């Protein structure tokens, strides 16, 4: 997969962020940095992309983003509650106006009752507001990860225009 596949969405995001003078940060679990790679593949992204955190393990979610371990224990790492906490934790730690977090099950293993492969939560936060969206994606691991990045970029563009 070439990162250029995401370029039109990244350019739309860049335009929206530059218009507001905003910078973003992202916290990624199941995408493992693919969103950050897509953003930083575009020249000039240092104007608006501040940082990316690959918080793949529960310990990383807790240590790097401040997600309470009790929240993970209660709802699971792939949950709306944890996605929101990841986005809000990053917003509290990064000098940015907008954050996005991704947590999901890309497969082929990892499914649990009620959370099949392809279950992904994305959440985005700006000061005073956090939103989340559940995705139920199909395909193999690569397809789930790519579709997650597509959804994340669309959410970021919409949030930057809100």
From TrEMBL:
Domain CinA C-terminal span(s) in chain numbering: 12-157
Coiled coil feature spans: none
Record's protein name: CinA domain-containing protein
